[in-house]
C-alpha cells in the first residue's frame, strides 16, 4: 500500500505512475515535480506536495520545513566560526614556520558543514527543489567521512611514533593509501545511490538494489569511523620492538608546550633543519614523528632513541572522544537506512533534533576540543628536510655520531649519547706499535671482536629496506 487512505492526491499519483510505466513509489521525484508543474502551473497544490513528501524514502533528520530555519542558522554561524579559527591558527603557525596542513583540512570540513546546513535552510522554503535536496544530503553526509579521514591521519602519526620502523614501511603506507582510496569509492557510491532514486523513475527491483547499496555504505561508514581507534589499539597491542627502540627518530624538540595560547618560536623548525647539515646520513634520513612526550616530564631534543616517557594520554583521549561522537552519528543514520520506511512512518531516531545533535552539536564540540587541545602541536610532524640538506653527500657511516649544536646546552636538556659512543672501546696508543714491519697490534683481535659486535648493533638501523627512512 502506498497510501493509508484513498485521497485525490493518491488517485492522481496512481494515474501518473501508470503513465510512467509503473515506477516504485518514492522514485523520480524530479520527474514528478516537472509533471506537476505541467498540470497545475507554477504553484503545486499543498495537499499533493504533502502526499509526495510522505511517500518519499525516510532520511536521517527528515525533510525540512519552516522549523528548521533557526537551527540551520545557528549551526551555519557556529561552523563559520570554527572555519575562521582553523584558518587563523594555520596562518599564525605558517608565519612562524610551523606548517600543519591539516588545519586547512578541518577548515574545509567546516565550510562543507556550513554549505550543508545552508542547503537545508534553502530546501525548507521549497521542497520541490530536488537538486537542492540532493546537495543538502551530500554536504551533510560527506563531511563526517572527511573528518574521520583526518582522524585516521592523526592515529597514523601516533602509530608511527610508537612503531617508527613499521609505521614508515612501504607496506604500511600503501595499506593506508588503499584504505583512503576505498573511502573515496564509498563516498561516490553513497552519493550516487542516494541521488539516482530522486532523479529518475526506477522499478521496484532497481529501487531495492539502490537502497541495499545505501545500506552497505552505511555499514562501511560505521566501520570506517572506528579505524582510527583500531589503529591506536593495534599500536598498543603490539609492543615496540628492539628495532623501534634503537631506530633514530626526528622529533620536533622545539615545541615546548601544548597550551592553547602557546605558539612555537618563529623559524624554530627551519633552524632545526639547518643543524642536519652537520649530521651524518642516518640522521638526515631519520623517521619523522610527533613529539615524544607531553613535556611535563623529561623533554627530548634532537635525534635520540631515548624517547623519555611514552605517554600520549591527552592525545589519545582527543581521538577517542571524537571517534565515539562520530560513531554515534553513523549509527543513528544507519538505523534510519535499515528501517526502510517511508517518511510518514519515520521512527524517533530520525527526528530532526537527533540529526542536529549528531551532525551539529557533537561535531562542533569535537572541533572546539581540537582547537583548545592544540592538535596542531600534539600531532605535528617535522617537515621533510630541504633538498640542500638531503642532497649532501658524506662518506660512509662513521662509527661515531656527529655532534650537532642544539639548544640543549643546559644540563636539564642534554642529548643522549649515541650507540657508538656508549660502546666505543678505550684506546691506549701503547697498544698500537707498528715499528716492526709485518706485525699486528698485540690486542688487535680483542678490538676487532668488540668492533664487529658494535657494528652488528649499528646495522640494525639499515638491515631492513632503506626506503623506510624516506617517508
UniProtKB/TrEMBL annotation:
The keyword ATP-binding does not apply. The chain crosses the membrane at residues 73-92, 99-119, 139-159, 171-196, 216-238, 316-341, 353-372. It comes from the Eukaryota. The keyword Transmembrane applies. PANTHER family: INTEGRAL MEMBRANE PROTEIN (PTHR35184:SF1), YALI0C10208P (PTHR35184). The lineage of its organism: Eukaryota, Fungi, Dikarya, Ascomycota, Saccharomycotina. This is Piso0_000212 protein. Keywords: Membrane, Transmembrane, Transmembrane helix.
Amino acid at each position: 500500500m502506498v497510501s493509508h487512505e484513498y485521497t485525490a492526491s493518491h488517485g492522481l499519483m496512481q494515474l501518473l505512475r501508470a503513465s510512467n510505466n509503473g515506477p516504485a513509489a518514492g522514485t523520480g521525484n524530479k520527474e514528478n515535480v516537472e509533471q506537476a508543474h505541467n498540470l497545475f502551473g507554477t504553484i503545486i497544490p499543498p495537499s499533493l506536495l504533502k502526499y509526495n513528501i510522505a511517500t518519499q524514502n525516510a532520511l536521517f533528520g527528515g525533510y525540512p520545513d519552516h522549523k528548521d530555519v533557526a537551527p540551520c542558522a545557528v549551526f551555519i554561524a557556529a561552523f563559520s566560526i570554527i572555519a575562521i579559527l582553523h584558518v587563523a591558527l594555520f596562518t599564525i603557525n605558517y608565519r612562524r614556520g610551523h606548517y600543519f596542513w591539516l588545519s586547512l583540512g578541518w577548515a574545509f570540513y567546516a565550510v562543507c558543514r556550513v554549505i550543508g546546513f545552508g542547503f537545508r535552510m534553502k530546501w525548507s522554503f521549497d521542497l520541490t527543489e530536488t537538486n537542492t535536496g540532493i546537495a543538502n544530503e551530500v554536504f551533510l553526509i560527506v563531511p563526517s567521512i572527511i573528518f574521520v579521514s583526518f582522524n585516521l591521519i592523526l592515529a597514523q602519526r601516533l602509530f608511527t611514533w610508537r612503531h617508527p620502523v613499521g609505521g614508515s614501511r612501504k607496506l604500511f603506507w600503501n595499506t593506508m593509501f588503499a584504505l583512503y582510496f576505498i573511502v573515496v569509492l564509498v563516498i561516490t557510491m553513497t552519493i550516487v545511490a542516494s541521488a539516482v532514486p530522486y532523479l529518475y523513475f526506477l522499478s521496484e527491483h532497481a529501487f531495492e538494489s539502490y537502497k541495499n547499496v545505501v545500506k552497505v555504505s552505511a555499514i562501511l561508514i560505521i566501520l570506517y569511523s572506528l579505524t582510527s581507534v583500531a589503529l591506536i589499539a593495534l599500536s598498543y597491542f603490539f609492543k615496540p620492538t628492539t628495532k623501534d627502540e634503537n631506530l633514530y627518530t626526528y622529533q620536533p624538540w622545539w615545541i615546548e608546550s601544548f597550551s592553547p595560547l602557546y605558539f612555537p618560536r618563529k623559524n624554530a623548525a627551519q633552524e632545526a633543519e639547518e643543524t642536519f647539515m652537520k649530521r651524518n646520513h642516518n640522521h638526515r634520513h631519520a623517521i619523522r614523528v610527533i613529539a615524544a612526550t607531553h613535556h611535563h616530564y623529561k623533554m627530548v631534543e634532537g635525534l635520540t632513541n631515548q624517547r623519555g616517557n611514552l605517554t600520549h594520554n591527552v592525545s589519545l583521549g582527543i581521538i577517542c572522544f571524537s571517534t565515539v561522537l562520530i560513531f554515534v552519528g553513523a549509527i543513528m543514520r544507519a538505523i534510519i537506512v535499515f528501517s526502510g520506511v517511508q517518511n510518514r512512518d519515520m521512527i524517533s531516531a530520525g527526528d530532526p533534533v537527533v540529526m542536529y545533535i549528531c551532525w551539529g552539536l557533537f561535531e562542533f564540540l569535537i572541533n572546539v576540543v581540537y582547537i583548545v587541545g592544540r592538535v596542531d602541536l600534539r600531532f605535528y610532524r617535522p617537515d621533510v628536510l630541504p633538498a640542500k640538506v638531503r642532497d649532501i653527500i658524506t662518506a660512509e657511516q662513521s662509527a661515531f655520531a656527529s655532534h650537532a649544536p642544539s639548544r640543549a646546552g643546559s644540563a636539564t636538556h642534554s642529548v643522549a649519547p649515541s650507540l657508538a659512543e656508549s660502546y666505543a672501546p678505550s684506546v691506549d696508543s701503547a697498544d698500537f706499535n707498528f715499528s716492526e714491519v709485518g706485525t699486528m697490534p698485540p690486542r688487535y683481535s680483542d678490538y676487532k671482536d668488540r668492533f664487529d659486535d658494535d657494528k652488528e648493533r649499528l646495522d640494525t638501523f639499515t638491515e631492513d629496506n632503506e626506503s623506510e627512512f624516506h617517508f
